[in-house]
From TrEMBL:
NCBIfam families: PRK06349.1 (NF004976). Transmembrane segments: none annotated. It comes from the Bacteria. It holds the Pfam family NAD_binding_3. Keywords: Amino-acid biosynthesis, Methionine biosynthesis, NADP, Oxidoreductase, Threonine biosynthesis. This is Homoserine dehydrogenase. Belongs to the homoserine dehydrogenase family. The lineage of its organism: Bacteria, Bacillati, Bacillota, Bacilli, Bacillales.
Length: 332
């Protein structure tokens, strides 16, 4: 049986999740691909930190060592920040590797350039994991909504903020206490700014904007409000009125202009996002033919993001195989 050789860039929460998913679902992957999937290398930042990896896997802090791996087919990227991630992915594409990324900040800014470069080098880019954790919104839009016009998006795109608001309502916690609980459970970083100030959701919304409307609004024009100012009293008062605060990312196009915002909004029981709780993400799409529908699922945690990356892995390889069999090059 031939082997698909892969490398991981980053071995934090998401990188470990991808490694575990491939290890525990190896049989399923082999049945689908007809090949064994092998993690050949892992790029890390600190070589002094102990990691439970087999000796046959190259562990290095040098991207050149990863790119030098013989017959490397695909790279899973799970690094925080624009750089050195963007540079590494450019190098991987030039080498002829498919790439799967979970980096929403980088992809919101440079995704279009990476996709164009991948097209030139005849490789594929998977970015499902950049947007809504385990919710397959990217694939849904790309494959299932090719005729429908998406008229409006309303979404909960940050599981951490949703968890905090859920705890403030259900258990009457203060904002600081709910945030601390989110950190203890691994849903929030030590510095939670991106989550609670709407920045993380903003990046994801920009990726959706590019995908749906072929462009993004000027970033400085997008209203961003966090949830830090919401008190337990406000949340409880809303609950008494049968309403709930949700950090909602909104996207629409009017008179040729893309309009977007990320802010806490009060929704009532009739709203599809009212019942979305804990770390779940949900995306409500208003479309021209289907009408309105909502996708929902886990938006935070190791395995939901890893699941999105591994599913992208299958999709990317099968798409590449199909293109080669057809003898033509058509890249999205």
């Amino acid at each position: 049986m031939t082997v698909i050789r892969a490398a991981l860039l980053g071995f934090g929460t998401v990188g470990q999740g991808v490694y575990e998913a491939i290890k525990t679902h190896q049989k399923r992957l082999q049945e689908r691909l007809g090949k064994k999937v092998e993690i050949a290398g892992v790029l890390i930042r600190d070589l002094r930190k102990q990691r439970s990896l087999p000796k046959h896997i190259l562990v290095t802090d040098n991207i050149e060592d990863i790119l030098a791996i013989d017959d490397l087919d695909i790279i899973f990227e799970a690094i925080v920040g624009n750089e050195p991630c963007y540079t590494y992915l450019n190098q991987a594409i030039e080498k002829g590797c498919h790439i799967i990324t979970a980096n929403k900040a980088m992809f919101a800014q440079f995704g279009t350039k990476l996709l164009e470069k991948a097209k030139q080098h005849r490789v594929q880019v998977g970015f499902e994991a950049t947007t809504a954790g385990g919710v397959p919104i990217i694939r849904t839009i790309e494959q299932l909504l090719q005729v429908n016009k998406i008229e409006k998006v309303e979404a909960i795109l940050n599981g951490t903020s949703n968890f905090i608001l859920s705890e403030m309502r259900k258990n009457k916690l203060s904002f600081p206490d709910a945030l601390q609980l989110a950190q203890e459970r691994g849903y929030a970083e030590a510095d939670p700014t991106n989550d609670i100030e709407g920045i993380d959701a903003f990046y994801k919304l920009m990726i959706l904007s590019e995908l749906i409307y072929g462009g993004q609004p000027e970033w400085r024009t997008v209203e961003k409000q966090g949830i830090r100012t919401l008190t337990s009293e406000k949340v409880q008062l809303a609950e008494q009125k049968q309403k709930r605060y949700k950090q909602i990312a909104s996207l629409t196009k009017k008179d040729g202009k893309v309009l977007a915002s990320v802010k806490p909004i009060l929704v009532n029981k009739a709203h599809p996002l009212y019942h979305v709780e804990d770390v779940d993400n949900a995306i409500k799409l208003e479309t021209s033919l289907i009408g309105t529908f909502t996708l929902q699922g886990p938006g935070a945690g190791k395995l939901p993001t890893a699941s999105a990356m591994v599913e992208d892995f299958i999709y990317v390889l099968e798409k590449d195989k199909s293109i080669k069999q057809q003898g033509e090059v058509v890249y999205s």
